[in-house]
Specification:
9 strands, 11 helices, alpha/beta, three-stranded mixed beta sheet, flat, four-stranded mixed beta sheet
Length: 400
């Protein structure tokens, strides 16, 4: 009995201490969660403040950006186009991209605030070209020729190829693509094959160059004793089947002429001529002089010069030629000499046979006499008599 009470009290005290420990743990957990909530709220507050500050910065920068994003008005062929400048600045390699992408320091507006661009280009072509800035492809209108569209693209520095142009007229499109390809190809031929021969001619003191294009398998064997009579004194050759095939087309020759003209060359000629390859036979002409017959093949040629003047002497030869004109001023202004008859009267100059001279009195004679057409009737009679006299002199029978 005496030990039961302390034992129970001890148990009670242990239970009470355990409750206190649990309460302390709960308080600690509550404190830590509160601290975590405070930290997360602080983080959210910092993020919100950052967003607010960035939004304020954007609002501060928005006026300048709004100025850059303002639409611009273009005037092309008296047609007004309102466009965002960002469409042009996205293609800086084009002319419009350069104009409106450099702070517009090279552009000026008219009195109405419009930019006058693309001079010489119709508004229909310009509207089609705007599709390149929007979706990268130009659709050629049916009313616009491919040549006109090509010239506009070259002016605005827009690439013209099969990936950027769609056209219903395939013949015109392929023709322009062939011209562009021929221009690039001849540039390669000119630099790698033709220019070295031109340099050789210039080092010899020549002022022009004549080049014949042969095939790769063409063999030239001339007789040293009897060479062929060539039209050009210094004729040079290029063995290139690719270049021979290039000059097969007349259009490519025109492109080659334009390329050489753009490079500053003069007196340009392109064509096809006969070129001797080897000796066929030798025959004796009257007198015992031998004549060599060569085999000729048709091959393209190009001829150019780098001098403006013709290859002629600038010396002027003056020759004394007896002139039939009157050089004496007094003789030229004097009256012609008169022929006199035996009585001393001037002889009138002879009149041609059949020539009849009438004065105004003859023409008006009928009207003065009240005879109506008497004057004209006399003239007709005289004409008939003159015709009869001329026929008699020429022994030509007069029809009844």
């Amino acid at each position: 009995m005496f030990f039961s009470i302390p034992f129970r009290s001890t148990i009670f005290m242990q239970q009470q201490q355990q409750r206190n420990n649990n309460n302390n743990n709960n308080n600690n957990a509550t404190t830590s969660s509160t601290q975590n909530n405070k930290a997360s709220s602080q983080n959210r507050t910092g993020a919100i403040s950052k967003n607010v500050s960035s939004h304020n910065a954007q609002q501060q920068q928005s006026p300048a950006q709004n100025e850059n994003l303002e639409n611009i008005a273009l005037l092309v062929d008296n047609m007004r186009f309102v466009i965002e400048p960002s469409l042009f600045t996205a293609h800086p390699n084009t002319m419009l991209g350069t104009m409106f992408g450099t702070g517009m320091q090279f552009t000026h507006t008219n009195d109405r605030g419009e930019y006058e661009v693309a001079e010489g280009i119709s508004h229909t072509v310009f509207r089609a070209i705007l599709d390149y800035y929007k979706n990268g492809v130009i659709k050629c209108p049916p009313t616009v020729s491919v040549t006109e569209l090509k010239e506009a693209c070259d002016y605005l520095l827009i690439p013209f190829d099969a990936t950027t142009v769609r056209c219903q007229n395939l013949r015109g499109l392929l023709h322009e693509l062939s011209n562009e390809g021929a221009k690039q190809q001849f540039e390669v031929f000119l630099e790698s094959l033709v220019l070295p021969l031109m340099v050789q001619s210039a080092q010899r003191g020549d002022r022009e160059c004549h080049v014949v294009v042969l095939l790769d398998d063409d063999v030239v064997e001339w007789d040293e004793e009897f060479p062929p009579q060539m039209g050009e004194e210094y004729c040079q050759t290029i063995n290139s089947t690719a270049m021979h095939r290039f000059f097969k087309y007349i259009e490519n020759r025109d492109v080659a002429k334009q390329v050489m003209k753009d490079r500053g060359l003069k007196k340009i000629r392109c064509g096809v001529e006969g070129y001797p390859t080897h000796k066929e036979k030798v025959r004796k002409r009257p007198g015992g002089r031998p004549e060599v017959i060569y085999n000729y093949v048709q091959r393209p040629f190009i001829h150019m010069s780098w001098e403006k003047e013709e290859a002629k002497s600038r010396h002027v030869d003056f020759q004394c030629v007896k002139s039939k004109s009157v050089t004496n001023l007094a003789e030229a202004t004097a009256d012609p000499p008169l022929e006199l008859d035996a009585s001393g009267n001037p002889i009138p100059p002879p009149q041609p046979v059949g020539e009849i001279v009438y004065d105004q009195e003859d023409l008006d004679g009928g009207a003065a006499a009240g005879g109506g057409n008497f004057g004209m009737g006399r003239i007709l009679n005289d004409l008939v008599e003159a015709a009869i006299i001329n026929n008699d002199n020429n022994d030509v029978p007069v029809p009844p």
